[in-house]
Fold this sequence. Notes:
Layout: E1 6-14, H1 20-30, E2 34-46, E3 49-55, H2 58-71, E4 76-79, H3 85-96, E5 102-104, H4 122-129, E6 135-136, H5 140-147, H6 154-165, E7 171-176, E8 185-191, E9 196-202, H7 212-225, H8 230-246, H9 262-267
Parallel strand pairs: 1-2, 1-4, 4-5, 5-6, 6-7
Antiparallel strand pairs: 2-3, 7-8, 8-9
Helix pairs in contact: 1-7, 2-3, 3-4, 5-6, 7-8
Amino acid sequence: MNRPPLCLTVAGSDSGGGAGIQADLKTMLALGVHGMSVVTAVTAQNSLGVQGVWELPAEAVRAQYRAVADDIGVQAVKTGMLSSAVLVETVAELLAGTAAPVVVDPVGVSKHGDALLAASALDAVRGELLPRATVATPNLDEVTQLTGVVVETEDDMRRAADAVLGHGPRWALIKGGHLTAHAGEAVDLLTDGAAEHWLRAPRYDNRHTHGTGCTLASAVAAGLAQGLDVPAAVKAAKEYVTGAIAAGFALGAGIGPVDHAWRWRRARP
């Protein structure tokens, strides 16, 4: 049997299917990876926003993780919504015993502006989770939340990357999708403090972008599970998410999701 690479997502559930665990598993499937999940929280969520969040107990998160890692194994891990300090600490401890690359998406705020990370958990993210990361993938708001650096220019992105790397990840991917100085393109910076990789793609005039961050981080993890190095995994993930954003579609009365199946839809006769 030709088993696909194994990728584990540790994140919250999005009942609307556009972000979180649902986006992660769709991305992994689209990229040829077997996705597995550890649910950290359940949200009541739709195109208009988050109506409720119910965090799972730490023992439930630990049991899910151990069930997968001890029996099936993992070749890459992606973390997303970890809403409290105790969950951050629990997941960081689990990652410390896992010999696989880790993509940390430090989810702080939803696409609709709903807070998904308690202020009391920020120190745990900085001190315990980021040091476990092979790649950390904050957006500009999350950079400010974690480091205090306000990003308005590409030079600011360099400063932000240095600040994030100061907390211990091997690589920082600063997502500049909201950088107003580049109205015509979406610019990201990947760096390990020595090498710099600037990733540029067209900025599409499409408001239906729910799940972009989850999708990008999961695509990076999928690439790492397949054996790509970090720059190659990030480059491939950027290409995939750019196509998904371009194909994002309306859903409900608010912001719709990116299209995780855009390559399949494009290939259909």
